[in-house]
Amino acid sequence: VWSFDKCAVAEGVWQGTAQGPTGAEESLETRLTGLRQSDSVLHVDFDWEVGDTYLAKLSGVLNLKTGAVVMNGRVAEGQYAGRRVHEEGLLYDAENSCFAGTIQVLPATG
Question: Between vectors from CA 53 to CA 80 and to CA 79, what angle results, nearest 5°?
Answer without folding.
Answer: 25
